[in-house]
Amino acid sequence: MPLLDEDRLFPVEPALRDLARGLYGTVCDLPIVSPHGHTDPRWFAEDQPFPDPAQLFVTPDHYVFRMLVSQGVALTDLGVPRVDGGPTETDGRRIWRLFASHYHLFAGTPSRLWLDHGFQHVFGIDRRLSAETADWYYDHIADCLSRPEFRPRALFKRFGIEVIATTEPATDDLRWHRIIRGSGWDGRVVTAYRPDGVVDPEMAGFAENVALMGQQTGFDTATWNGYLDAHRARRAFFKQFGATSSDHGHATARTEDLPQADAAALFGKALRGACTPDEADAFRGQMLTEMARMSLEDGLVMQIHPGARRNHSGPVMTVHGRDKGFDIPGRTDYVAALRPLLNAVGMRPDLTVILFTLDETSYSRELAPLAGAYPCLRLGPPWWFHDSPEGMMRFRQMATETAGFHNTVGFNDDTRAFCSIPARHDVARRVDCAFLATLVATGRLREDEAPDLARQLTYGLAKKAYKL
After folding, report:
1. Class of residue 149 by CB neighbours under 10 A (exposed 0-12, middle 13-18, buried 19+)
2. Measured between alpha carbons, how far is residue 309 from residues 42, 243, 251, 280, 329 in Å?
3. Where does the record locate the signal sequence feature (predicted)?
4. DSSP 8-state secondary structure symbol assigned to residue 82
5. Span 362-371, mean pLDDT?
6. Of 105, 264, 384, 464, which residue is 20 to 30 A from 78 by alpha carbon distance?
7. How many Å apart are CA 58 and CA 284, to the nearest integer?
């Protein structure tokens, strides 16, 4: 029997379910616009087969391995690399068996929906994953991965992806994007400018990264003006490879608009490694405002996603490095934090700043009122810990009343797990159709308005907001 219910995530009440099902039928086959993600551009450049099922579904997906770690499974047993190059499990079948024997842990989670969607719709599987079926799954998926129709470019087309944005550091040479462009392939893969490594004085290698940016651009990045000009040059370079956005992941949403002499002095302290924690946060805040001004110059959409308390586990950070499932949400202030940036450029309708949050308490109290007033602001979709059916519905319920639909930007999948992309978009489409059906049934939306809104939430708003 199928792994997935055809009416999953639709309302239980029959009339509402019929409305939601009908709306979903108008958008389920629309192309995927994926404007913010972390897939590896090398996949599309080289178009080599994925190595094995474990490296497709388990090892790259922090949603998967963090759940297993929470039940005592070691990251090394899942093949997650060590920073010192030390030994980790390399046998894909062993990793897969370990994953399968713990698959029950995902019951009721969005990861279960995404994984089952991939198993059923990508690999044609109709039996549940367990310790007993682990080897059958592994052999079946491995056999599929050996075929041309399961290579990255073929799956890109099969998934209906119109455009996907990867995310690269400011100093990246974009070699894989260059290869994609030179290959003649017509799949649209663009980059996004992620400058955290050259704007965060507390990040390891900050001064070295700034110096490298100077070497790449020919500007003297030991000076404040040279440093800003180097950013402009790198942003222009990223635009050559399709970038329409920049992406900023800071611990807080703090912004500053200091006099330029004060900003220059703070930059000097940052280069010397002499900033206090508050000064480092102030410098990051100043750079958000500087990046907003640069967006007015070059047109890049600006994404700000604060609130992750990154690398919470010291031992995991020491052994495995960054981005290994131990980033934890924290309380985030937006109203006071964003005011310097908004006082500087917030009334400019030719600027787009997309705000994300990991603090759901801010939706109706701060984010929706801000986006419902300032022309430059848009709300990003539920993100990371909240891109679940419940999280998506809470977002619509709390944000729509003040910000409406058109101050939001549709959906993005924000994933490294390639096969989860169509699954995540499908979940978002179903939840949005369920929400619209409820508005229609309760007399808050005309039935003839709902199909166009469903299309906007699925496709149009993302295209418009990200200039794609």
Report:
1. exposed
2. 29, 27, 6, 16, 6
3. none
4. P
5. 98
6. 384
7. 34
